[in-house]
Amino acid sequence: MSNQERQDQMFEFIESFNVSGLTRTAFCREHNINRPIFYYWFKRYKEHQLSSNGFLQIDATTLHTKELMLEIIFPNGVKIITNMSTSCSDLNRMVSCW
Question: Among candidates 62, 15, 63, 10, which has minimal Cα distance to 37?
């Protein structure tokens, strides 16, 4: 199997995980995937998504924290940090300033 084929296969697993609603551990167990390998490819998938379109889609339903925070870092170093309850219009106003 070529490196590209391996990447394509693992990215398909990551996309399946993203819609599965399972935790990473449960998904790995169910699909008989080594967890460190899954985490490696998960990171590579996120980097690939970010480099391909400049944005990374986040599914907040898979996050399990009490206080979800959003951090946006612009290429010039400006950083916006807010909680996930910020309205889209407020977020739009903050982003449009930079």
Answer: 10
